Amino acid sequence: MSPSTRMMLRRYSVFIAIVVVAAASLVLSFTAHQAWLIVFCVLFPLVLVGVFDITQPDHSLLRNYPVIGSVRWLFEAVRPYLRQYLMEDDLSERPFNRDERSLVYARAKNEEDRQPFGTELDTYAAEYEWMTHSLAPAPVAGEPFRVEVGGPACSKPYSASVLNISAMSFGSLGRNAIEALNLGARTGSFYHDTGEGGFSPYHRIHGGDIVWELGSGYFGCRNRDGTFSPERFAERAADAQVKMVEIKLSQGAKPGHGGVLPAAKVTAEIAQTRGVPMGEDCISPARHSAFSTPAQMMEFVAQLRELSGGKPVGLKLCVGHPSEVFALAKAMVKTGICPDFVVVDGAEGGTGAAPHELADHLGMPLREGLLLMRNALVGTGLRPQVRLAAAGKVTSGFSMAANMAIGADWCNAARAFMFSLGCVMSMRCHTGACPTGVTTNDPHLQRGLVVSEKAERVTRFHHHTIAALAELVAAAGLYHPSELLPHHVWHRVSPIEVKPLDRLYPFLPSGALLDAPDETPYAAEWQAADADSFAPRQEVGPRRAA
Fold this sequence. Notes:
By secondary structure, this protein is of the alpha/beta class. The protein folds into two domains: 1-94, no CATH class; 146-504, Aldolase class I (TIM Barrel), CATH 3.20.20.70. It has helices at 3-11, 13-31, 36-55, 60-64, 69-87, 100-108, 175-188, 201-204, 230-237, 268-274, 294-307, 322-335, 356-361, 366-379, 397-406, 415-421, 443-446, 451-475, 501-504, 512-515, 523-528; strands spanning 129-131, 146-149, 158-161, 163-165, 192-193, 210-214, 242-248, 259-261, 282-284, 313-317, 341-345, 387-391, 410-413, 489-494, 497-500. The strands form four sheets. An eight-stranded parallel β-sheet has the order 4-13-12-11-10-7-6-5. Strands 1-14-15 form a three-stranded antiparallel β-sheet. It has a two-stranded antiparallel ribbon with strand order 2-3. Strand 14 and strand 15 (497-500) form a beta hairpin. Helix 2 runs antiparallel to helix 3 (36-55), helix 6 packs across helix 18 and helix 7 (175-188) crosses helix 18. It starts with a helix and ends in an 18-residue tail after the last helix.
């Protein structure tokens, strides 16, 4: 008996025991004593509940854990009332249904997400933020917001939604989860990022728009020794489903860290998708081998754009050393080659597994990283050519609006779309035993995730979140989120002090780093940056206060 089958029997053990005892009690009621009929009458409804749980398509936990899974839904139903009772007047903690996961669930399930009595948040708590509104609101947009992606060197620009599915690889997510995400993306007209695990067959089945992410392992377009293969890339990138290509430099949850998928976990499907041999560890190096300097990276961008037939090519990174961000900007200026877009992944971004120190204390959080990249592009006059995207705990219309006020053209979300698939944060992503079938390749657990049902939830979450963003934008007197500016978002610094973002952070004017870098807060970092090396020069002069 396989480990997967044994695990399935354990999950069904309570239901099986109920069926066995119910059947035995029915027999004993005829052969021994009629009192056994009482036991049967008590257990038979549970048998019906178990059969219903196994066959219904809506809830993954019930399909995978018949009868006992219902206990979870009972706790979910009473938890808001328990929290309210136990926490009494602690308004900052009381409304469980306002946490990000519950908001996603409500929107994905098409449930009511509006709240009575207005805000229950402590508006005087530090870090509280809000948007300013207009006394002359604009009409709420009826059409989904789109962003044209593709610079002057791009011959096949792409019209992207302002909210898309962030990078999550096949292997990290199971086949049913990948299928549901892609079908939801196709239905809702937004894109699905493959993650660095490659463009799998399950990304293809439903034909949703794909952003193909290339990590340091070059999965799907690599030579036998793990180096980049232009021929294999050109063949795969020619697929009409691939709309853009994204070079992954780092991810927020574990930047600067490679990865190893042990040989025992390299299934035949994963091996075929990634282009790696069976029976060997699948290694993602910590750095790329196709380039070694910022200028060479820009040349690699141009190479991929040409090999793909003119499709947009961009970068994804979690910001680390500020001087390296400026080195990228200097390389763009020096070579005349710009990526079509840059996705900034915040350090708060998620992952299936990462060392605690890397997840909690390495990399720049999204807001600071996004601001630094915005200033690097604006300060060098390159912003009109390069689109900017944000990823990292994006779950609501407001979180999108705040990122766009800083400079993002669109946002990507990963965990929010996982919630829409039914993820309950069991924190077992790295074990292969995800109870809802999202982050596992176990066929018995994946059975719980019904593709058609979860795809609808993915689409609904996207639709309702964009609608919420549209209402915020209209309330501010604007017509498109691209009109949002830093002064539209205010931040409470202390109980008695608030500031708009443009007074809290430095926002450089166009060309400032080229015209007068010493007058910017980044004088030392700009001086240290080198287009021909990732290693910073020795910083010259004192740092200027922001």
